[in-house]
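User: Could you go from structure to sequence for me? I need the amino acid at each position, not a summary. Structure tokens:
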């Protein structure tokens, strides 16, 4: 019986630790950054139809920091110019202050590159 109690305690602790660790590392989208991404989408990039809902960290091409929820990567390369993003590279992208990586290869974007990028 002692062994069962010990084993039960160990399994319980492991399960609680796993649940806590999973909740601790949930990506939660920062609202101002979600709004900036939606503005980017509306600036002529309507092809981002998967960008719906409250959780922008789960949107296609978006990666967020596991702890802070800040957008850290924007990965939206196109297979070719005719199927990629169209329109202006909107300055709303400057709201993504924690952006580390951006890939917009083969898209048909126009206009000036916002000063926050280069």
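Assistant: Here is the amino acid at each position, in order:
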């Amino acid at each position: 019986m002692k062994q069962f109690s010990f084993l039960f305690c160990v399994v319980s602790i492991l399960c609680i630790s796993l649940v806590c660790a999973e909740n601790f590392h949930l990506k939660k989208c920062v609202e101002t950054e979600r709004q900036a991404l939606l503005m980017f989408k509306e600036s002529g990039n309507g092809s981002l139809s998967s960008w719906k809902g409250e959780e922008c960290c789960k949107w296609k091409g978006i990666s967020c920091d596991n702890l802070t929820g800040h957008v850290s990567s924007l990965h939206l390369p196109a297979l070719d110019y005719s199927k990629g993003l169209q329109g202006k590279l909107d300055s709303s992208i400057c709201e993504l202050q924690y952006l580390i990586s951006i890939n917009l290869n083969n898209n048909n974007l126009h206009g000036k590159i916002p000063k926050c990028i280069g």
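One structural detail worth keeping in mind: The chain has one domain: 27-110.
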